[in-house]
Amino acid sequence: MDAETRALERPVDHKREVRLWLRLLTCTTLIENEIRRRLRRDFDVTLPRFDLMAQLEKAPDGMTLGEVSRRMMVSNGNVTGLVERLAAQGLLERAPNPSDRRATLIRLTPEGRRNFARMARAHEGWVAELFAGLSPPQGETLMDLLARAKHSAAAACE
Amino acid sequence: MDAETRALERPVDHKREVRLWLRLLTCTTLIENEIRRRLRRDFDVTLPRFDLMAQLEKAPDGMTLGEVSRRMMVSNGNVTGLVERLAAQGLLERAPNPSDRRATLIRLTPEGRRNFARMARAHEGWVAELFAGLSPPQGETLMDLLARAKHSAAAACE
After folding, report:
1. Rounded to whole angstroms, what are the CA distances from A67 to A70, A73, A107, A135, B138?
2. Facing A153 at nearest CB: one of B27, B73, B124
3. How far is B90 from chain A (nearest CA, A)?
C-alpha cells in the first residue's frame, strides 16, 4: 500500500492520541511492575492482594464482593480466590450484611489491618520515590490532566 | 494508634504522590478495560494478543521472544502461549536468526499483517474517541508530564 492509498484509507490521523495512550500505558506499567517487585521482595505479597487489602482498609464495616470487584475494576471471579486465601490466613473475615442477608460482607481482621498498615507505609515511600522527578506544581497539573482524561474516557465508555 | 503517634511514625506525608499514582492507575485501567472490551466485541481478540501483534508489526524482519517480552513488559512465559496460538492460526511464523542460531525470530505472516491492520485502524479511532475531551495543547502537556514521570520512575527502578 503506497502513501497515497494509506492517506485515503485513513482520512483522519489519530497518531497523536495513540502516542499519548502508549505513553500513559508505559508509564503506568513501569511503576506498577516496580511496586509489584518491591511488594514481593519486602513482604512476599502479590499486587492484587495488596490492592484488595487497600480497598477493605477503607471500609471498616465491610464491603460485599461485588463492591470490592467494582472498585478494583476486576471480575468477581478474580477476587474470590484472594478472599479465600486472606481468610485462611486470618487477615480477613466475613460479617453478616444488615441490609441484605444473601450478600455477606468481608472486612479486615485487626491482624489484617496491622499487616496492611506496615505495607502501606512502605508503599507510600516507594510511590514518593518513583514520582520524585516531578515538582509539586507539575504533580498538580498532571493530576488535573489525568482527571480530564478520566472523564473523557468515562464518557466514551457509556 | 492516635493521631500523634501516627504523625511521629510517618514524619513525611506522601499522600499527594499516592493520590497521583492512584489516579494514573485508574485512568489507565479504565481505558485499557474499554479497549479490551471493544477488541473482544468487534474482533474476538484478547488485548495481549493485539499487543503482541502490534510489537511484531514494527519489526518486519522479526524479533526474538526475549525482545518481544521486554517491549511488552511481561515475562517470556506469558508470550510463549500467545506465539503458539498465533502460529497455529497462520498469523505468525518463525524465521532463522542470522545473528544467533539458537534464538529464532518470530514475525507476522502477510495474513497476520492484514489482520492486524484492520484492528489497528479501529483501535486508533477508539483511542481518539477516549481522549476526545483533551485539547491538543492539553494532550501535549500530558505527554510531557508523563515523559517526566516515566524518567523519574525509571531512575528509581535502577
Report:
1. 5, 10, 12, 35, 33
2. B27
3. 22
